[in-house]
Give the backbone structure.
Amino acid sequence: MDISLVGVPIMYGCDREGVEYGPDKLREKNILKIFRDKNHRTYDFGNLYVPNTPISEKYAYHKKIKYLKPIVEINNNLSHLVYSVLSSKTFPFIIGGDHSLALGSIAGASKFYDNLAVIWLDAHGDINTCDTSPSGNFHGMPLSAASGIGDPSLINIYYNGPKINPQNIYIVGARDLDEGEIKIAKNLKLNLYTMDAIKQIGIMSTIDNILDKIKASNIDGVHLSFDIDVLDKKLVPGTGTPVSNGFSLEESKQILERFLSTGLIKSMDFVELNPLLDIDDSTADICIDLIDSISSALK
């Protein structure tokens, strides 16, 4: 497979220093070699440009969303890059940076595919709006904007209008949902698989259920967005919002390998590694272990 590696060193969505160093930490840990050793022709596009916006301008562009202007600019640029990569019949693998970048990757993929689905592996729903978010951090809002809810500048990233039908969204592993997110998820009728629900039916049954729904629809492409905080907090000290009761490393590998081995996944995010919070590179090493599994499963 031909893979295009794109780093997005953004921290504006989480408003916490350190996550912007994630892409270079993964390169330091030989992410390119991992893909190439599995016979993937891998091209490193380097890091997407991230403008320097001072803290004093945090709320300069929106009274409830932090750093709106640079977030819009970065996601617009990423959208076109992802679209261009897909147009060249190459797999975009986007490394963050915080999860705000997913709006851009989804927008680019949704312009390329007629009917996109999104699998969102995350401890959080990331479907807040500026009116429901308790923090104003956009990394908790990209799915709502992609669904057509929120500030017009976010809804209209890359091209005007929603980027995805909410019923084609599959949130997996959520266990820290805000009250507003729960209401939005119900209103949008998206597919929400909390950790409690997954434990009841089992991981493989959950995955099979999602794949059955995707295969029964007119989906022609799937974007997989992986936030490392879907793992249990004991495993990932180097992330900004760790949550207990998450997946083990082996469970995470199993999930990723099952989805990727189908050949349905056409683009992917890997986000929220914060090297400044990490302990002896333990989180970075787990990320590399996961990426090795991803590389083996990609078809």
In short: The mean pLDDT is 97.
